[in-house]
Amino acid sequence: MGQARAGAALGSPLMAKLMAGLAAALRPGDPVADRVLTWAGDPSSMGDAVPLRLAAGLHALVLSGTDPDLAAAYAAPLTDPTAAALSAIARHPAFLLDWLASAPQTNEVGRSAVLIAAAHWLTTRYGLPLVLSELGASAGLNLLWDHYAMTAEGQTFGPADAVLTLTPDWTGALPPRAAPTILDRRGTDLNPLDPTTDRLRLLAYIWADQTDRIARTRTALDLAARLRPPVDQADAADWLDSRLQTRHDGALHLVFHTVAWQYFPTATRTRVRAALQSSGETSPIACLSMEADDQSPGAGLTLTLWPRGETIPFGRADFHGRWVDWTAPAA
Questions:
Q1: φ, ψ for residue 157 (rounded to 5)?
Q2: pLDDT per residue over 124-149, tens digit each?
Q3: Which of 4, 77, 104, 302 fits a disulfide with 19 by CB distance 3.0 to 4.6 angstroms?
Q4: Rounded to the nearest 5°, which phi and psi values hold at 27?
Q5: Under a CB-based contact definition with an 8 Å cutoff, are residues 60 and 53 in contact?
């Protein structure tokens, strides 16, 4: 039921009805239901996110044209899709068991609104070009944030030829205007996804009734398939420690992660912090975090700057980028 509440809070009535319906209706005796109901680890969204795995598998059946009956139920917004989903579960056990075996990987492009705003703030403060390093980059869609624009309170931040424009509901002062320059970009993920061959997987993790998210992700995938942002398969701490060994004189190194930190093991988090602290003693580094915390609503935004190691609250943002409450101080 936790995922049903999350669907309602994040603007997906279909997800709210589907998750509540399946939570009440799944019974032992079906291969997929047995896998879900006897899950050995933590099935919640803070653990293995089992409901999201199942929802993504069902959405993949729709997107791939594999189950027209389920697609018809999803297309009727006032209909409870539970019965159609249960029938699909019975028809496609092997397909859905395969989806249950993989952890969710979203590449929510809406989060780039925060990256755009923070980059303008950092460029104003330092006047330096940026080197980008993303932890938990998935397919690297948010590594390409400088190809997107953001409009807030009638002002646009980003290139005139942006491939897409983000329009979050904005509260607080606007960020300063100082167009960033990117010298280098690279990301890491334990299981990097390819924007072409993994396109279905990335789209399926988006909730089926949120057509705006699907549309902008399609656009970002098209861009990533052309530009191929580099994402290495590696542990975040190992990768960052190695990447920070290369100095970029005359540049600011921006490390960032958006709704990824919770999935890192404790040892990895400790080593990431240590790598930032050690390298930040000799080179300017900024680390932007957009992550779930013990507050609500949405995710907390913080920026930590080295060599001083000061952490600055930047406000909060919706997990999907629908709104930003910006509290960053003057740059």
A1: -115, 125
A2: 999 999 999 999 999 999 999 999 99
A3: 4
A4: -130, 150
A5: no
